[in-house]
From TrEMBL:
It comes from Melghirimyces profundicolus. It comes from the Bacteria. This is Transmembrane protein. The chain crosses the membrane at residues 6-24, 31-53. Keywords: Membrane, Transmembrane, Transmembrane helix.
Amino acid sequence: MFPVRIITTIAIIVITATIAITVITAITATIAITATTVTTAIIVIIVTVVSMITGRAMVDTDNQTETGVAPCTAIF
């Protein structure tokens, strides 16, 4: 039989490690979500600015065929 002190120490280490892993996972997930949101926002801003400068939409949103542009496939 293990002494109670060793069992208690092992239990504390396991609990501490579990809490640490949970916290690290939560932080990592938050960072990933934030990075995705920021990246999406930057892309939207770039597309909007380029559309404003060029005077035409970078993405075909009206699903109509324009000159030389297939519907739903226009990127630039």
